[in-house]
Records
---
Amino acid sequence: MKILLKNGIVYDPLSNVKGERMDILVENGKIVEKFSSERDVKIIDCSNKVIMPGGIDIHSHIAGGKVNAGRIMRPEDHMYYIKEIEGRIHSGTGYSLPSTWLTGYLYARMGYTFVATPAMPPLSARHTHEELRSIPIIDKTAYTLFGNNWFVFKYVKEKNYEKLSAFVSFILKSVKGFAIKIVNPGGDEAWAWGGNVKSLDDTVPNFDVTPREIIEGLIRANEILNLPHSIHIHTINLGRPGNYKDTIETIRIAGKFENKKRQVMHITHIQFHSYGGTSWKDFESKSEEIVKELERYKNVTFDIGFVLFGETTTMTADGPMEYYLSRLTGLKWQNLGIEIETSPGVTPIIYRKNSPVHSIQFAIGLEIALLSNPWRYCLTTDHPNGAPFIRYPEIIAMLMFKKFRDKIISRANQAIRSRAIIESIDRELDLYEIAIITRASAAKILGLEDKIGTIKPGYDANIAVYDLNPEKIDFHSVIRAFSRAYLTIKDGEIVVKEGRIVREIYGKTFYVEPLIEEDVEKKIYEDLDYFFKRFYSVNLANYPLDTIYLTNPVKIKTETKIKEITI
Amino acid sequence: MKLNPFDIYNLLPKKNCKKCGLPSCMAFAIKLIKREVGLEDCPEINSAMYIRNKMKLKEILREYYKSLETKLVIDEKRCNGCGICMISCPVNASSNLNVAGGKGFEKDDENLIYKIENGVVKVINIKKCRRFEEDIESRPCSVCVDNCPTKAITFL
Amino acid sequence: MIITDVVCPFCGCLCDDLVIEVENDEIKTVRNACKLGASKFLKHKKNRKKKPIIRENGNEKEVDFDEAYDYAVKLLLNSTRCLIYGLSNTSNEAIEYAVKIAELLRGYIDNTSTVCHGPSVVSYQTVGYPSCTLGDVKNRADLIIYWGCNPLNAHPRHLSRYSLYPRGLFTERGFLDRKLIVIDVRETDTAKIATKFLRIEPNKDYELISAMRAILNGLEIKQEKIAGVRIEEIYEVIDMMKSCKFGILFFGMGLTQTYGRDRTIDNAISLVIDLNKYTKFSIMMMRGHYNVTGANQVLAWLTGFPYAVDFSRGYPRYNPGETSAVDVLARREVDSAIIVAADPISNFPRESIKHLLSIPYINIDPFYNLSARYAKIYIPTKIVGIEVEGTAYRMDNIPIRLRKVIENNELPSDEEVLKNIYERLIENEDIIEKRYCVRSAE
C-alpha cells in the first residue's frame, strides 16, 4: 500500500525538522523518498495538519501480573470507560486499567505507536508477554525487574560483576526483556518481612548489601553488557515527604560512570521522588533542587510521572509503598509477592483538588518538566499511577499554555501557591518541544533511535497526523487534536482515521539478547541449579519462555567480551 | 505389616496332630510368625487337600518375612502420593537438592530412600535409613511415619 | 524415552517436576506426581471418543470434524443468545478464542470459578488481596493456616512441595521451623498432622473470624465459646499469628461456599490485612482446576472482568448473580451453549441443569463426560498438558507452559476447535451484524 501525506506540517526532532511543510511518502510499511511507481497511491491532504512520528511511551504499566490483578480487583474502574464491538474491532472496558484490546486502540487513537511496559517480574514474564501479545497495533517491549533478586544480592555482595552480568544476560534472554528495571532496591526484600529500606545505605535484611551497592552493581552490569537502554530506576522512598534527598543521592551515583553513547541512568517518575518536608503537613515541592542536581549530572535522564486530579489506580513493584498508601487512604490493597524476585502491590487512589498534598504533587510534575531541557526527559504519568495515559493531551495542553495551567491551579488547594513554584514559571512549550518529549527523547533514551521515533526514509512508517493548525492553536484545539489523531499510520497501514480505529494489526515486540562468552555464562550454571532446586517453586527448565509469546519479535543483539573488560 | 496368629491358624490344617512336635496348630502359627519354624515342618499341609491354603500362606509369609528385613511396610491403597515422606526424610533431603527444596527428583540414586512412582510411595534403598545405623538408640528417626497423614507407612 | 520437567495438568498446584517414561506413545510410569495427577496421565485413554458425535431426534451419529464445526456454527447462528461455560481445564490460548466467540455472538462467558472461588473474587474486589507466591511460602513462612480446605486430599503435594515440608532459605529445617494450624469442621487428613486444630461448627466461620479480629484489635471477648471453639484456643491462635515472622492463610471451599460466602472472605482478608500491622501475613485461594486462575486472568485482560461476563450490549458487562452461568440458565435466558472442558450437568443446581438440557449445546471436551452425553454435538479434543502444549496459571498466578508428552494426531486441540468455530463465524459476520442491528433497533 502506498500513501502520500501531502503538504503536512512536520515536527520531527530527530531529523531536526521544525514545523516545515513536507510530503511524506509511505510504501510497503516503510517511509520512502520516492515511490517505486506512481500507481495506486492513496493521497491524503494534510494541509494545516501536524505530522509527527508515532508517539513513544517509555513507562506505562499496560500489561503484566499486577496490571491484571488491578483489573480483577477494580471492576468499578471498568464502568468509567467502555467501548462497544464494531465489526472486527473488539470491545473493551477500563479507564485507568483498560483491557488489552482497548489499550492498543486508545494508544493508537492518540497517535502513539510504541509503549514500554516497565516492571516485568522474570517469574511471571510469560504472563506479561501473553498480555502484550493481545495488545493490538502498538509496538511494545518490557523491562525486567532486577532490584530485589537474590542472585543480584549474592553477586553484588561478592562484588562479582562478571557473574552478575552473566546472570542479567541469562534472565533477559530467557524472559525476552528489554532493559534492567530496578524498583526500590532491597526494599521489597525487606518488605517480605514487613519492613522497608529507609536510605541508600541501609542494609537489606539477611543479605548484607545496601541499595547503593545494588544500583552501582547493576549499572556496571548494564555497561558491561552494553544494553541499548541504561538502567531504569525507581529509587527508594517513593512518595514519602523529604525523599528528594534520596533522589539526589541516587542521581549522584551516576557520576561514577560514563558512557559516550547514552545516559547511564534513567530515573523514572521523578515527580514522585521530589518531595520536601518532614511529614504530610509540611509537604512541599523540591523540584528546583532536583532540576539543579540533574543539570550537574548530564548522564542521567528521567521521565516525569505527572499527577492529574481524578481517580486512578496505583501499581508498582514497590510493595511496602503500596501498603503504606493503602493504609493512608483506607482503600483496598493488593500485594503480589513474587518469590526471590520482587513484591508488587496495587491500590486505588483519588487525587483530589482540595488536598494540599495532591495539589503539590500535581505542581511538581509540571515544574520539573518546565524547568528542564526537553531532550533530557519524556512525558509520562507512570500510567496508571499519576493518571491514566488517555489524559496525556491535557498534560500537553498544560505544558503549552500557561493560561490553561493557571485555570487548573486556581481550582486546586491553595498550598500549591505557598509550597510549590509552579505559579512563578512562565515557560510555555511549543509543538516542537512537545514532539521531543513525546517522541524523540524517548527514542533516544531507549537507545532505539535507529529504529523508531522519526520519519526519515528507511524507517518503519509509524506516523501520527493531528488535525491542528499550528498558527491558530489554543488549549481546546490541542486537547481535541491530541486525544483523537486525524490519522495514525502503523507499519504503513492506516489504523486510525479521524479518531476511529479502522483496522486491527499487531505490532512488534522488542527484546534484547546480550551475547557473552560461553564459558563466562557457564560460571553461573551452578548457582542457577542450586537456587532453582532449593528456592524457586518452578524448575529451571520451565522458566525461560519462547518467542511464540511475542508478536513479530525484534531481537536486538549486543555482544560483549567480558574477559577483555577490566571490571 | 502386622500379622495376627489367627490369620495363619485359619489357613493351617487345624488338626492339632502334634506331628510337628508342638502341642497345637496355634502354637505352630505363633512359631511361624517368630520364624522359629518353617512351613515345611508341618507334614499335614503338604497334602494335596491343603494346596490352596499352602499357596496363600506362602504368599503371606513371604511378604511378612521381607518386611521383617526392612522393618517397613507400605500400604499402597492408603497412600495418596502426597510425597511428605519423601520430602521430610532427612536422609533424602541431605543427599538431594531437589528434595530439600520440596521437589521430586529425576533419577534413582542409592543414597535415596523414598520415591513417588505412579502416585504411590516406593522404597529405593531402605538400607540408608537412619534406623539401620549401628547406633540405633541415639537417633531413633520416624519422621516419615509420624508425618504420614494417611498412615500408609508403618514400622514393625 | 524419559521426559523430565513435565507439568501436571490436574490441580491448581501445577507441579512442574514430573518425570514421565514413555514407550511407543504409551505412558509407562509417572514419577513424582501424586495419586490424582498420576491417574490423569496413566488413565488418559479412558473415556475418550475419536469422532465428534451429533445427536438428532434421539439418534447418535459420528461425523467428521469439518462437518461438526459447520454444524456447531449453524447451531450458534440459529440461536439468539449463547452461553460459553467451563474453560478451567484448558489452556489460555483456547480461552482467548472462547472470549472472541462470546464477544462476536454477544453472549455470556463464564468459567467454573463461578461455582467455586467466585465469592473469593468478589470479596477481593471489596477489600483487596494481600498475597504472595508459593515460593515465598516455601522460603519464608513459619506459620501456615489451612482454613476450610483439605489439601492432602484435594492438592496432595501442596504441603510437601510448597508449604509445610520444603526447606527454604529461611526455613532450613523444613517442617520443624514451621507451625501448621488447621481450621475445619471435621478432622481431615490435613488436621491430623497439624500443630493446632480448631474444629468449628459448620457455617460459623464468619463468627470466628470476627472474634479473631476483635481480639487482634484489642477488644475483650466474654463468651466462653465462639463457633464451638474455646476462647483460650482462639487467643492462643491469635498469639501464634502475631508472633510469626511470615504467615500465610490458605482457604478453600469450606470458606467460600458456606453461609456468608463473599462476606466471610471479606472478613478473612481483612483479618490478614489487620495482621500486617504486626507481622507479614498473606492469604491465598486454593484453586481447584489447574487453569481456573488462568481463566480468570484471560477474561480479565480481554474484557476487564474475571468471570460472569455478558456481551449482550456489545461491550463487556459484569454482575455476578445476574450474569453468571448458573443464573442465566436458571432464568432461561440462553438458547444455546458451548461447554468447554467442564461438566456442568454433574454439578450445577437442578433448575440450571433443567434448562441446559432443554437447549441445544456444544460440548468440547477431551473426555466423554456426563455433559457430553446430553450434548447436541460433542467434539472430542486433545488433553492439554498430555497431548498438546498450552499455558496455564498456578493458584498463585504464576504462568507455566504445559508440555506435550505423547502424540495424538487424531484429535484437534481445544484451541483449534474454538479457532475453527470462530473463523467460520467470522465468515458469517454479516448475518451476526444484521441480527445485532435489528435487535438493537427493536
Note: The CA atoms of residues 18 and 32 of chain C lie 5 Å apart.
---
Amino acid sequence: MENIKVIVGLGSCGIAAGAKKVFEHIELLNKDNNLPIYLDKTSCIGMCYREPLVEIHDGNDVYLYGDVDQKKVEEIINYHIENHKPLEKYVVQTDKFKAPENNFFEGQVKIALRNCGHINPERIEEYENRNGYKSIKKIADEKISNQQVIQTVLESGLRGRGGGGFPTGVKWKFASGYNAENKYIICNADEGDPGAFMDRSLLEGDPHSVLEGMIIAAYAIKANQGVIYCRAEYPLAIVRLNIAIEQARKKGYLGKNILGIEGFNFDIYVKEGAGAFVCGEETALIASVEGKRGMPRKRPPFPAESGLWKSPTNINNVETYANIPWIIFNGAQEYAKYGTEKSKGTKVFALTGKIRHGGLVEVPMGITIRDIIFKLGGGIINDKKFKAVQMGGPSGGCIPERLADTIVDYDSVTATGAIMGSGGMVVMDETTCMVDIARFFLDFTAKESCGKCTFCRIGTKRMLEILTRITEGEGKDGDIELLEELAQQIKDNSLCGLGQTAPNPVLTTIKYFRHEYEAHIYDKKCPALHCKKLLTYTVIPDKCTGCTVCAKNCPTNAISGSPKEIHFIDHDKCIKCGECFSRCKFDAIKLS
Amino acid sequence: MDNPISMQSSKVDLKLLDPVIEKYKDKKGSLIPLLQGTQNIFGFIPEEAFYKLSSQTGISLSDMYGVATFYTQFRLNPVGKYVIKVCHGTACHVQNATKISESIQDFLKIKDGETTEDNLFTLESVACLGCCSLAPVMMIGGEAYGKLDGKKAVNVIKEIKKKNQ
Ligand SMILES: Cc1cc2nc3c(=O)[nH]c(=O)nc-3n(C[C@H](O)[C@H](O)[C@H](O)COP(=O)(O)O)c2cc1C
Ligand code: FES
C-alpha cells in the first residue's frame, strides 16, 4: 500500500533555495511513473539553513531530509519505495536515530509557530484538525462573554510582539470600552525590520491562526471589520492570506452571525503596503490604509479611541494574534507557565547573519541570548569569534558578546540599550565593523524618515554624514561627542517611535564598541578590516602567480608586474577601491 | 510580466486603466490600490495616467503625486523588462550585499536605479525580501535567489540575458 507521504517545504525561503524545482520534479516523476506516494506541500519549519527540506512519512515514521535537490529527492523517494527505510545519509532530523539536526528543536516551545511546517497552509481542514477554529467555537459553545475573553488574555500576560511589548489584554480592554457603529481590527503585517521574517513565515505557514486570533479579538472588542496590512514584498503571504480568508468565509468563520453568535458580524480583507518602513507605526499605518501618505500623528487619541476612519480600532502584530487561539484553547495559566515574571510565553526569533543555523526559532522567554545563538543557532559560521548580536532592527541596538548571558525578556533586553523588537537577531562576528553597522542603520532611518519632524529628518542625515566620514577615514576629534549630542536631540524631539529610537544603533555601538570608533577616527584603522578606505592592500609574494588580473583591473594603474611575476602595489597611487582584492583568484592580496 | 512598458509615455494606452478605475472608483481609501493597479499595467505610473485617474475619481492631482512620491514602491519612470532587486537589509548587508550590487553594476554597466540601454534590466536596492537566512539575496521577476556572491549573481543575469536573445 502506498503509505509514503512526501511533503515539500514551500515557504519563500524554501522556494528561493530551490524547493519549487524539487516539488515540480516529484510531480513530474509521479505523473510519468505513477509512484505509490502522496505528494503535498507545507511551509517553513524554521530550519532555513537546510532548505530545501523534504519530509517523508513512511508508515508511522517521519524523516526530514535537508539540502535536497532534484537528483537527491529522486534517490530518496525511490529508496523509500523499494525498502520502506530511510536513506540515512541525507536525513537531517528524525526521532528514529541520530541525525545531524536532531537537537534543533530541543529547547524550543512552539506556540505561535505550532502549525508552521506541519500543515498545508492552503487547506483549512488541516488547520481545523490541529485544534484550529476550536477556540472561537469554544467561545460560541460555552457562551464565553467578551469580557471573559479579555480577562483570559490579560491573565496570560501576553505582550505585543510587534516591538513595543504593550500588554495585549489591556489594549483590548481600552478598545472594548468605546462604542461606535464601526469598529476595526487591524493586523500589522508590515514587518519593517530589515533582517527579520517571523511574520512572513507565520502568514505563509499558518494564515488561519492569524485569522482566528483576529476573529477572537473582534469578538472581544465588538469589531465588525478587519484589515491585514501586509507589506508588498511578501507576495506569497498575500496569496495564502486571501485563500485562507475565502475558505474561512465559506465555512462561516467570517461573515454574519459567526458560529451562531447573534449579532457577531466580522469580515477581513488584505491591504497591500507600498513600501515605507514608517507605515509599521500604528498611526502611520492607519493613514496608509486610508489611502494617504503614511505620516504618524500625535497620540492621544490612541487608535483604541480614534483609529481607522476615526473609529475605535485595535491594532496588533501578526505573532500576537497567532498566540491568541492557543491561549483561549489551553487557558491563560498554561501560557503564563512559560517565560519570566513580566514577560510571559514564548517569542519567535529570526536568526540571521554570521550564524551557522540561520532560521526561525520559538523559545520561552527567559532563555539567554547565548543559548539561542550557540545551542539553537549552532554558533558562528567558520568558527569565527562572536562579536555582537543586533536586536530590534533600526530601533534597536547591538548587544556585545560579554552581555550574551542576558535573558530575553522585555526589561532585560531594554536594559542593554537594545530592544526586544519584533524578533530579528542579526549575529555579527569579528569581521563585522560596528561603525559600519551604525552607518548602515542610519542610512536606513534617514531614508525612511517621513520628514515630518525636523530632528528626525535632518538629524539622522547629519548623523549619517558623520558616520560615513568616520568610515572613510575622515573622522575628527569630537565626532563621537557630536553624535551623542545629536542622538539625544533626535530622541527628545521626534513625534513617533521611528525618530525616538533611530539613534539607538549608534548609541549602543558607541557604548560597547567605542574603541572601534576611536580606531577609525584617531588611528585611521578599521579593526574588523571592513572599511575599504582604511585598509592597506599588499601582494602576498608566496601566493601571487603573476596572472595580471589585478593589474589589468586596477583603475589607477597602481599595480605593476609582468606576467608570471610577483606583482607590486604602489600605495601612493592606490585609491583603496578593493578591486584587486575581490578579483584575485589566489587570495594573494592581503588587507591590513 | 509582458507589460507594454517600453513604450514612450506619449503612447500609453490609457484605456487599459478603465477596469482599475471601475474597481476602485467609489471605494474610500483606494488611492494606493489605484496607483498599484496602474503600475501593474504599465510597470510605472505615466504622467497621463495621473491626469486620467484624477479626473475620473475626483482625487486631486497633488494628493496623488504626494502619495506616489511618498512610497518607494511607486515609479514615475519606465523600467526594464526585468527588475533586479538586490536586498540591502541587515542580514544581507552583514553578508556583503554591497559586493552583489557592485558586481551587477560592473557587469551591466549601470548604476543603482538605472536601466540598461536594451531595456532589459533595471537595478534596484531594497530592504529585506524576507529570506534573510539565505542572505545575500536578490529577486528578479518575483523569483528569489539566495546564498549569492558576486559571480553567482552575474551568472543568473547572464542566463536571463541568454534567454532573451
Ligand atoms: C517606526 C515604527 C515601525 C514599526 N513597525 C512595526 C512592524 O513592522 N510590525 C509591527 O507589528 N509593529 C510595528 N511597530 C509597532 C506598532 O506601532 C504597534 O505598536 C504594533 O503594531 C502593535 O501591535 P502589538 O501590540 O501586537 O505589538 C512599529 C513602530 C514604529 C514606531
Ligand atoms: S535582509 Fe536580505 S532578505 Fe532579509
Note: Chain A touches chain B through 53 residues (CB under 8 Å).
